[in-house]
Amino acid sequence: MTVDKYLYQKISFFLINFMLVIGFTGVFLSLSGVSIFIEWFLGGSSMNFSLIFLFDSISCFFLSVVLCISANVVWYSKSYMATDPNANRFILLVVGFITSMAILIISPNILSILLGWDGLGLISYGLVIYYPSSKSSSAGMITVLSNRVGDVCILLSIGWFMSVGDFNFSIWALLSNTDFSIWVSFLVMLAAMTKSAQIPFSAWLPAAMAAPTPVSALVHSSTLVTAGVYLLIRFSFILGESCSAFLMFISIMTMFMSGVVAIFEYDFKKIIALSTLSQLGMMMFAISLGLFEVAFFHLLTHALFKALLFLCAGILIHGVGNTQDIRSFGSLSLNFPLVTVCMNLANLSLCGVPFLAGFYSKDLIVELACQYSWGIFILLMMFVCLSLTVLYSVRLTYLSFVSAYGGGSLVSVCETDYSLLAPVVILSFTSLMSGPVLSWLSFSCPTLIFLPTFLKWGALFFVVSSVVIMVSLQRLVYFYMWGTVKKFSGLMWFLPWLTGQWLTLNTLKNADQFLKIYDQGWLEFYSSKGISMGANSMSLFSLKFQHNSLKIHFLVFLVWLFMCLIYIL
Amino acid sequence: MAYLQTEILGHTQKVCRLYKSALKHVFEYAPNRAAYRYAAVCVRQKFEENRHLTDALKVQTLIEDTKEELFQKQHSHPFRYATSPGGSAYGRELKSPDWVLDLWSPDEKAQYPEYFARREEMKKEYIVYWEKKFGNKAEELHHHH
């Protein structure tokens, strides 16, 4: 039970207003090409502290998208979390999360980015372990420890920036001739990889679906996971050729792995989480090609339609009795017509269907990649990943809305709650308009792309053929089709086991050996116990030598004192 | 045996459990309801074909072989109901044990005086009920000495 009956509405209203102010500021800054630094300076002669906030077009657009999604998610949570007894804790955590994200976005230097970065990791842990089940607890553990690796990398890179003289990325970005060590590039890239769940840090994102659905919509689709991409966009000057090549390989692998696993996944929210993973791979792929503005554009459009997808998923999950297994869904288009429309809109955007949001950003990445490609294998893998996106999206839509209902009876399968529907409708319109509007604002002049006809039509061909393939496959009834591939992909290529249980079990076993043999064994013998035993045996010897006589003991002490005085004087 | 036998099952129980496992297995794999119904009928037919068997060795071998087949072909995502153990919504309500209330500070307890007063009375009533039913172990031990 919340203290204030209208708390959620008030927070949502405040966020909407803040979003409008920031949004219009962003438009003004984008058109005028101006950046605003707000600095608080504290100090005197020898010690100076300053807190700087940067408001440029990038930070304003990102912040306004985050605030838009946050406002809708908070409004949605009013009804979704109404029956939850810990709703106060929930809203506090969400507000803390939005604050951390805002700090990260408007920070011009890596020190204050760390404040937001650590805040995001900590609060996302609090949100994942929101429910007191063992599944949430283990998911929270893997989330926070994966994010912790990134935190350490950022801390190490801060040390490096301290040695080169300046923490502000805006200053470094102005310099044309920057020669950074490969280690700091690798550290920043690794930090971004952990936050954005690239291989081998991908296990935490599907596991984090144990959190409530509004958390997944806000945190795990559009804000926390994009922090890594945002970091790389801001620190674009730091990526050298070798890091870009490594990032390209990792991003392609992540896209491929998440696409394949999503096809064989049966948890509704995990399919959407894997879809997020795939799109994050796409953003990282764009960054590795040097297309930072395009990656940022895709980040914004993806955030909107992915949050919409999660909110629709929440309504469906609520409707079929809190089950997330896709085998319990089916024919829901009859009972949830509005949610079906909005979810299909989000899915079609995700697939890159022409003139929806995803088309503007994703198709631009694909065409520019075709133009600047690093080889035929990369191109082929990119188109394969595009097809995989369509395959799992069509599967999701088919199993939710087209196939026969597979759930139980006595469930309230209907859409009547306007607190849930209104944010979904608002996000649908926002997502629909975001593609063209953001492309007009982000790119002042259209990008000229010259491609042969087959490459130009390649993306659309792969999308259409994937739709046909998946719809045909859904009608096939062979139970044990692709049994081994299904099992391998169903366990996410053993990545959660490899980076979770296997790694920690071996580390703990070795740590146990170290503890027993070295820490509680030889180190004790030679250091603490050794010193005390040595002092003990020396004092026993001196007692024996002194025949246990107090007079001789004091005489010896005086002799020692006399010798010390002689030495000093 | 590699595991501890905790219950003795009759033959009917073993067959019924195997049948239910088989139905769950085909439900997990079926892409839609119609396919599941068809597969369920086929499973039932297989069980009916072997219903007449009287040779205990043959029957046990069949049961073990079917269990092994179900194990080998188990689904990577077993179906669990949402609020059942292993389900997505399992364990979301945390019920604190009653003794946690004893750890509250006096300031916190003072906010609910009637509740805690009644709780103390109920504790005494429970001790009386226990001693009436099971006797007073402390007194018995004391008497032995």
Automatic annotation (TrEMBL), chain A:
It catalyses: a ubiquinone + NADH + 5 H(+)(in) = a ubiquinol + NAD(+) + 4 H(+)(out). It is found in: Mitochondrion inner membrane. GO terms for biological process: ATP synthesis coupled electron transport. GO terms for molecular function: NADH dehydrogenase (ubiquinone) activity. The keyword Protein transport does not apply. Its EC number is 7.1.1.2. Residues 107-383 form the NADH:quinone oxidoreductase/Mrp antiporter transmembrane domain. This is NADH-ubiquinone oxidoreductase chain 5. It comes from Daphnia pulex. The gene is ND5.
